[in-house]
Amino acid sequence: MPFYVYILLCTDGSFYTGYTKNIHARTRLHASGKGARYTKMHEPEKVAYVELFNSRVEAMKREREIKKMTHQQKLDLVGSQNANE
Question: Which of 1, 10, 29, 69 has the fewest Cβ atoms within 10 angstroms?
Answer without folding.
Answer: 1
